[in-house]
Every structure is written in structure tokens, then in C-alpha cells.
Write a structure and sequence with these properties.
The protein folds into two domains: 1-43, no CATH class; 47-226, Muramoyl-pentapeptide Carboxypeptidase, domain 2 (2-Layer Sandwich). Helix content is 35%, strand content 12%. It contains nine helices and eight strands.
Length: 241
């Protein structure tokens, strides 16, 4: 694997993992092999979990391998303007300002956007995740189903105060004028579609055309232009060695 050493995000300490993953996935390019292993995809979800030490940074990555502490709550949470938020939902300051500006500009074009979910505490996310538990399924069976559509507590971007669900929570939202407007314009306001279609194996979640993550305009534009998920982009360009 000598050539891979020239990839900037190649980590020497992961060479054995790269080789093992490539043997199991021979159709992947070495670029993707290195990216996937850097994300952690060579291991089962929720294994080898790392506690996030920079939860307040705008670049923070939260996924099934990176966990926020149960006590983390952003200090700059603010209630979104009620015009775009019927339920008193909150986002961090810069995300709130950007979201409101995006909603105002969209409305000027006849597009109505509203937040239907934003900041969630650790305990509330725990409630959301466990909401559909029944006695006819084991914990493992429940997790196998629920993990595709909901994050376990500590692993939800909503706890960062930088994620917002917009208008609807159904995949059919993708076919609406609102979703198409967001797909074309959200990055201009600092938001990216976090769980895109066709990237389920990377993100670990079903396609969510309603879930947007604030990164700031520069980074959101870079991620959008790259065509990568934020997991992939982070693993290639933001993950420290």
C-alpha cells in the first residue's frame, strides 16, 4: 500500500485496518478505503466510540462513532423567530441567525420553511430513540430497526444546537418545492443536507431530505461542492492526525 502514503489523510497507525478493510471491500478505491476507515466504518456502529472533546466548535462531527457527553448543552441557544418556528425550538446563535435569513429569503420566493425539530438535550434524545419500544422485540432487534432512523442519546447532531429538521419528517418531502429550494440554496446560508440519498452506508441513516446541519457559509459551500457527506469530508480534511 505504498501509494496510499501520499494521500494527505492517510494515517500510518491505521495501515493494518486499511489493508483489512480493502480485502473485505476489493471494489473500493484506496481513497475510499482510507476515508471509510478514518470514519470508523470498518467497525460496527457504536463500537470504538470516541467522546467528543470539542463539542462547541462549528466543525464538530457527531455520528455513530463520536459521542457528546450527557451533560453537554450549548451556551448560546436562542429561540428561533416564531414565524419560522411554531413550537419554541432553539438553535445556537449563528445557526439561528442563518436559519431565519434563509427562511426570509425563501419566503420572498414563495417558499415557506419552518423548523419542526432543532436542539434536543441528551435526555430528550434518549426519549426520542426509545419512543417505539415494545415488549415483542429484544433490545438488539429494536436497535437494528431504530438505528437506521434515529440516533442514540449522545450521538445526535440535534444536541449540538446546529441541526434543524425542516417542514416534514417524511422522505416524500424530497419531491416538494421547499426541499428542492433547500437542495439548491441551503449551502449559501451555511447549511448542508446531512443524510443524503445513496449515502446510507456512510452516514448510517436512511435518507433524510429534511435534516440540515449548520457549518458556516465557507465550510458548507466546500462540503456541498465536494459531493461528499460531512462524515467523508471530515475524515479527509478536518480529522487531526
Amino acid at each position: 500500500m505504498q501509494k496510499s502514503a501520499y494521500v494527505p489523510f492517510f494515517h500510518v497507525g491505521r495501515l493494518e485496518r486499511y489493508n483489512s478493510y480493502q480485502q473485505k471491500n476489493p471494489n473500493l478505491s484506496w481513497l475510499d478505503v482510507i476515508t471509510h476507515v478514518n470514519i470508523g466504518l470498518d467497525q460496527a456502529h457504536y463500537s470504538n466510540v470516541q467522546l467528543i472533546d470539542n463539542p462547541s466548535e462549528l466543525t464538530v462531527l457527531v455520528n455513530k462513532y463520536r459521542q457528546l457527553s450527557d451533560g453537554y448543552e450549548p451556551k448560546d441557544l436562542e429561540t428561533i423567530d416564531q414565524r419560522f418556528n411554531p413550537d419554541g425550538l432553539k438553535l445556537r446563535h449563528y445557526a439561528r441567525v442563518a436559519f431565519e435569513k434563509m427562511c426570509e429569503d425563501a419566503l420572498a420566493e414563495g417558499i415557506s420553511l419552518k423548523a419542526v425539530s432543532a436542539y434536543r438535550s441528551f435526555s430528550y434524545q434518549q426519549e426520542v430513540y426509545n419512543r417505539y419500544k415494545t415488549q415483542d422485540k429484544t433490545e438488539e432487534e429494536y436497535q437494528a430497526i431504530r438505528d437506521k432512523v434515529s440516533a442514540r442519546a449522545g450521538h445526535s447532531e440535534h444536541q449540538t444546537g446546529l441541526a434543524v429538521d425542516i417542514n416534514d419528517l417524511e422522505e416524500s418531502f424530497a419531491d416538494t418545492p421547499e426541499a428542492k429550494w433547500l437542495a439548491d440554496n441551503a449551502y449559501k446560508y451555511g447549511f448542508i443536507l446531512r443524510y443524503p440519498k445513496g449515502k446510507e452506508l456512510i452516514t448510517g441513516y436512511n435518507y433524510e431530505p429534511w435534516h440540515f446541519r449548520y457549518l458556516g457559509r465557507k465550510l458548507a459551500a466546500d462540503v456541498s461542492k465536494s459531493g461528499l457527506t460531512y462524515d467523508e469530508y471530515y475524515a479527509r480534511f478536518l480529522l487531526s492526525r
